[in-house]
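Bumping my old thread because nobody answered last time. Still need a sequence for this structure:
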């Protein structure tokens, strides 16, 4: 069974308080045995969450906007150079079992919107204002609240869907 993937999104520019919150979240995700995924650059929330997860011994996946793996934060375990710029924000969300968004700007808001559109569990951590009208994601204020929410959410995501089991791959015979 694969480890759940927690996508952590947030600003390139962030306050020291938001960076500290992101670093603590990354460490807590790693202690749970979950994988941390972010936009992977060596700035802002991406750097802080990766540093926290890496220092706590966690797996850190960096999905980069550019075409060079060396552009990743040094805290990344796996660097994936997508070469698709902001379009990779969709990949960040689709590759995550749950999404936690810390304060950010347009890129973060696009990831919040993708999480809503794709039906990924979404929590906002550290936001002072509601970023989107018409949708009320879970709002959290501490790393402890966020980890408790993730435990419940990821258990629900991982639970088998007995009403709609996953399709089985057809058996293949020998190749001619």
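Sorry it took so long. Here it is:
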């Amino acid at each position: 069974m694969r480890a759940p993937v927690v996508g952590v999104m947030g600003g390139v520019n962030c306050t020291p308080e938001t960076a500290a919150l992101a670093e603590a979240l990354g460490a807590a995700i790693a202690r749970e045995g979950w994988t941390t995924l972010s936009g992977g650059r060596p700035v802002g929330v991406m750097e802080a969450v990766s540093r926290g997860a890496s220092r706590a011994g966690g797996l850190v996946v960096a999905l980069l906007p550019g075409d060079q793996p060396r552009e990743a934060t040094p805290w990344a375990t796996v660097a994936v150079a997508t070469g698709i710029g902001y379009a990779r924000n969709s990949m960040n969300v689709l590759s995550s079992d749950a999404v936690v968004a810390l304060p950010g700007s347009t890129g973060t808001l696009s990831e919040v919107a993708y999480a809503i559109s794709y039906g990924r569990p979404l929590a906002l951590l550290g936001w002072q204002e509601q970023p989107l009208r018409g949708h009320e994601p879970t709002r959290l204020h501490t790393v402890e609240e966020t980890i408790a929410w993730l435990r419940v959410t990821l258990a629900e995501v991982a639970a088998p869907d007995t009403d709609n089991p996953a399709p089985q791959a057809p058996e293949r015979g020998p190749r001619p």
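Helices lie at 16-31, 44-55, 88-94, 106-118, 143-158. Let me know if any region looks off to you.
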